[in-house]
Amino acid sequence: MWKLLVPFLLLAGMLVGAVVIDRPLPQADFVLINRADVATLDLNKMSWMQDLRVASAVYEGLVKPDVFSRNFDIKPAVAERWEVSPDGRTYTFFLRQNAKWNNGEPVRARDFIFAWRRGMLPETQGDYVTMYQLVRGGRAFTEWRESKLKEFETRGGGQARPEEAEALWKETLEHFDRTVGLRAPDDRTLIVELERPVAYMMQVFAYEVMGPLYAPLVEQYQRIDPVTGRLMLQSGWTRPGTLVSNGPYQVAVWRFKRDMRLEANPHYWNTSVQRARTIDIPSVSDPNAAVLATQTGTVDWLSDVVPDYRADLLRAKREYYAEHRELYESLLAQGLDPVAIDRRMPRDPRQNIHAFPAFGTYWMNINCLPKLKDGRDNPFADPRVRRAFAMAVDKQNIADNVRRIGERPARTIIPPGSLPGYESPAGLPSAPDPAAIAEARRLLAEAGYPGGRGFITVEILFNHEGGHGLIAQALKKDWEQNLGVNVSLAQKEIKVFREELRNQQFIISRSGWFGDYGDPTTFLDLNLSFDGNNDRKYNSAEYDAMLARAADEADPAERLKILSAAERLLVEQDMPMIPLFHYNMVYMFDPHTVSGVSPHPRQKQSVGLMHRLDRPNPDAPPVAMEIPPAGK
Predict the structure, then answer these.
(1) 77 and 57 in contact (C-beta within 8 Å)?
(2) DSSP state of 567
(3) Does the structure show a pLDDT above 70 at 249?
(4) Looking at residue 467, what is its pLDDT?
């Protein structure tokens, strides 16, 4: 009898276990929907906005930006103070004694050195390697390591040589310590020497990828390949329950395509900023479901409102303002930020949609390599072809009739007027201007394709989230009509899209960028021949030299002139990307209930600052922008 029951008892036990493991989590203090699922929590490898947003809550660097200050001021984080040498080349950071990892261990200066060294390794293949390479000897170290690895692999002939591989790694560590400008004379002092003075360096130090890593854990997930000598990096250390981090929150749950939960880090040095004890980030792929969940109060902040009807929601909000014009204009005159204004106006569901101009541009990447991945000659290697395609696009139509949220058509990569003292180039005219269309056709004919004859079918690569398909359809119509070429659309799942983008398996792809810091180079560096974010593989010795000259220029005004000329080369001559519009960010949240969303034009949101005003600490005042009253 018992033998007959055993299989049923085992099955019942498995079912009970599954229910226990999969049971719903308790309600979180704050719920947000990120624009896409987090791809990685490895600081050295992240570059997507959704990853960086979570990283800002889970990790903490030496310093951080005050996203609610008008000037995006830098304030202390792990470092309680710092000193800068008179020549601007040496930074000395003094770490606070109570900065700890979430396992209770102190954060030490060498944790930053470990993380930045890992970021400089060619094996890491991080998009932000150029940030680490601002350190003296950083770029030379990366190149030295790559050359040593090539030499090791060539000499080995495919044979495993574990002892020699270990010796090369030991030599690498010694070479780094000897040649790279990073020192930790004690646990609480970090000395950083730069290749040259960098005007925006404090903003670089504040960027998420410049945070520390807990070496005793990360080193358990790396091994040396005895055949290639390369350091093989595994991601298991980023799993919840395993990850050791030092930010105000820690990862408690991370279930693929389902959800992520952050919990307050009990060892964080400043518990006063943990206004929410728990933060949930569910995965919601349906944009309509995301809006509905926010409208019904299930979700507190929706980071990207993408359905077509968002334009109607924004129009309804403008009508709401018109109905309360006198109050609205009075609050505006007080210098209040947009969220603070909404919070002081009568409650109305129409208030809950928000559009903020952002420090970002949407463009189309153009593959600039001589050959496509399938071996065909790439006609887009010719800048005349790239200019022709740029001039044949009706950008105003895309802004007005596809996006419909008040964004500005773009002729430049850097949003004009966003950086004091920087003069944007004019860029190229484009359709529907008849002269622009005529010039586009002339350029294409000059390149050998009159009327589009003999040109390859142009495939536009994009991911299905975010309304990119509608933009691709508008581009297809413009190029077929104005240039006579054939265009096909390739919609991919986000993970496949990212992989094909990184490996240049595209002809033209959707792309864009939000500035990481307040300097032209936050956009212009993307086109350096060696930059990790140069998915276009644009390679111009002239352009590289211009940015190098700007880096060596001591006069701030002259430096900006050089950078403006470099952008002019991009957007008027070489055109490795086609700028379409400058972003507005469209969020959804109830301003009477939610605090911590910054309207600053940089549009850098710190997830750890977000909270509901009615829980768990209703007495905590809402945060607001520092905006001077009108006329000042």
Answers:
(1) no
(2) H
(3) yes
(4) 83
